[in-house]
Amino acid sequence: MVDIHEASRQHCLLHPEHVQTKREIAGLLKAAGIRPRKRLGQHFLIDGNLMRRLVRCAELDRCDLVLEVGGGTGGLTDLLAAGAGQVVCVELDRDLYAILEDRFRDEARVTLLHGDVLESKHRIRREVDGTIGMHDGGATGGVKLVANLPYQVATPLLMNLLVDYPQVRRLCFTVQAEVGERITAACDCKAYGPLSIILQSLCSIETVAKLPPHTFWPQPSVDSVMIRMDVGDRPFNDQEELCRFVALVRGAFKHRRKTLRSALGYVLNEASRDRVCQRFDAKRRPESFNVHEWAGVFRAADGGDA
């Protein structure tokens, strides 16, 4: 009897651009006696062209460390290992982790971690934190997220990576279309909020492709998008300043329907709030201020030039 794990692994070694098909993924799961788990958001990308496009967006080289979250059966991991210097693949599902262990047991460039990528909503797990923090890619390399993100982890993961890790230089991922709308939203629309402002303050963002449900197996009930985010020069002096900006935006948007003056009263002292209100129309709502204006609000609150 042919070992389907070994046959699939050998095929990818011979054909590094090969992407797992739906039939191959289903065969791996059947051999392991498991099915996709809806509660974990398991939807496998089965469109090979889109998978390759996701990897091309990352523009990998051997100086890069790649973080993949939700390794599944290793289809994307195959392509990442062919281009990156190191791949850290995190998989929550114990059965899928066993498939990955078998598949990449001889691949020195792939490090597998079993469990949640988040230690808590506001903290990356310790093993991932240490790996990212120690990476020195030199002049050309950096840390890159490349993943078919499980829907439930996307927002806190993106925020934590961008706020806490200046080593992260690029993020290329697929995500639920609703989350993609929140990332790219402009002011004065329902999707606009802290996620939009903070990510757009730190990155240039491009929606690379729209992914209808049939590009995944099992098919999700919603559309997805592929997004590329390139981290620019940070508009903040240090980590502490960035964290204060994040706290200001998040605090104000807890009262997004109030006026700016009223919303800032919950997060700033009176003197800081008054400085902001002298420079901006305090009767406007927080959701009406664009990303550039929010940077000005922060500078004014801090006593600097708006």
Short description:
By secondary structure, the protein is of the alpha/beta class. Helix content is 43%, strand content 19%. It is elongated and about 65 Å long.
Low-confidence stretches: 7-15
For the largest beta sheet, what order do the strands appear in spatially? Answer: 4-3-2-7-8-11-9
Q: What is the N-to-C order of secondary-structure elements (H for helix, E for strand)?
A: HHEHEHEHEEEHEHEHHEEEHHHH
- The CATH superfamily of the largest domain is Vaccinia Virus protein VP39
Query: What is the share of helical residues?
Result: 40-55%
Structural classification? alpha/beta
Throw out a few tags for this protein.
306 residues; alpha/beta; Rossmann fold; 2 domains; seven-stranded mixed β-sheet; two-stranded antiparallel ribbon
